[in-house]
């Protein structure tokens, strides 16, 4: 499937997908390039990873799949505690908000290349300590997210990456704060998608939609764009 310019199209699945079949089903859908690069002020002008993403949904879940080609890959984090530091590994992310959320709040779903997951909700700000404005979703919610990685689920240290690795996830709509009767396509969803690797030999930050900052910062709901449901 060819890669197109980002438009945020989310395709409706009419057939019943399962945890075993959903990742392959996403291969036939349009892919959108993460082509907006954020850099540290003194960073070398290294080529960013090549990343594309697709989106789909059904009555119960949002589906997202990333295809990543990068020079190095790492999966050191484990699924322990409420906030595993997945952004230090090879990491892909889906941030979003919708009309039913209080102004300024949003979800961040962050995944290492082997599917270790961080999920927070709240307003921009710290996620720990007495001044925390963001809070982790429950362990039960994290476990309810289907994850399928071409790299498997075992930890490994930094190594040369394969030509392409993939990660597919299926997020229940309850994780977005929606109820069973809510129509995901009618909730006014806005979003952005990211790829990073803060502690890789070649740190990088790339986004689907542009973010107007002088240094990398993914926690910018002002950069979210509307999701188009098809």
What can you see in these coordinates?
- This protein is 4% helix and 39% strand.
- With 230 residues, it is mainly beta.
- The radius of gyration is 16 Å and the shape is globular.
- It starts with a strand and ends with a strand.
- 38% of the residues are buried.
- The mean pLDDT is 92.
Report low-confidence residues grouped into runs of 5 or more. none
What's the helix-strand series? EEHEEEEEEEEEHEEEEEEE
What fraction strand?
35-45%
* Terminus-to-terminus distance: 18 Å
pLDDT averaged residue by residue: 92
- Summarize the main sheet: 8 strands, mixed
Q: How much helicity do the residues have?
A: under 10%
The DSSP helix count reads 2
Shape label: globular
| Class from secondary-structure proportions | mainly beta
Could you tell me the number of beta strands? 18
Radius of gyration: 16 Å
What are the salient characteristics of this protein?
230 residues; mainly beta; 2 helices; 18 strands; 4% helix
Give the topology.
Layout: E1 3-4, E2 9-12, H1 22-25, E3 31-33, E4 36-38, E5 50-57, E6 61-69, E7 72-75, E8 91-97, E9 105-112, E10 117-123, E11 134-136, H2 139-144, E12 146-149, E13 156-160, E14 165-172, E15 190-196, E16 205-207, E17 225-226, E18 228-229
Parallel strand pairs: 1-3, 2-5, 2-18
Antiparallel strand pairs: 3-5, 4-16, 5-6, 6-14, 7-13, 8-9, 8-15, 9-10, 10-11, 12-14, 15-16, 15-17
């Amino acid at each position: 499937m060819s890669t197109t310019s980002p438009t945020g199209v989310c395709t409706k699945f009419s057939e019943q997908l399962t945890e075993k079949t959903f990742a392959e089903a996403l291969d036939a859908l349009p892919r959108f390039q993460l082509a907006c690069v954020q850099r540290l002020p003194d960073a070398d002008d290294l080529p960013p990873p090549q990343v594309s993403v697709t989106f789909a949904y059904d009555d119960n879940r949002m589906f997202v799949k990333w295809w990543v080609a990068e020079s190095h890959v790492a999966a050191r984090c484990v699924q322990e505690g409420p906030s595993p530091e997945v952004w230090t590994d090879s990491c892909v992310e889906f941030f979003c908000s919708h009309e039913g959320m209080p102004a300024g709040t949003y979800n961040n779903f962050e995944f290492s290349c082997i599917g270790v997951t961080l999920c927070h909700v709240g307003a921009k700000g710290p996620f720990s300590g007495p001044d925390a404005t963001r809070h982790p979703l429950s362990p039960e919610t994290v476990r309810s997210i289907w994850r399928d990685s071409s790299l498997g689920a075992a930890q490994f240290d930094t190594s040369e990456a394969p030509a392409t690795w993939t990660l597919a996830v299926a997020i229940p709509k309850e994780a977005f704060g929606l109820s069973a009767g809510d129509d995901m396509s009618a909730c006014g969803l806005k979003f952005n998608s990211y790829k990073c690797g803060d502690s890789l030999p070649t740190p990088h930050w790339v986004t689907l939609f542009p973010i107007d900052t002088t240094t990398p910062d993914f926690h910018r709901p002002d950069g979210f764009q509307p999701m188009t449901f098809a």
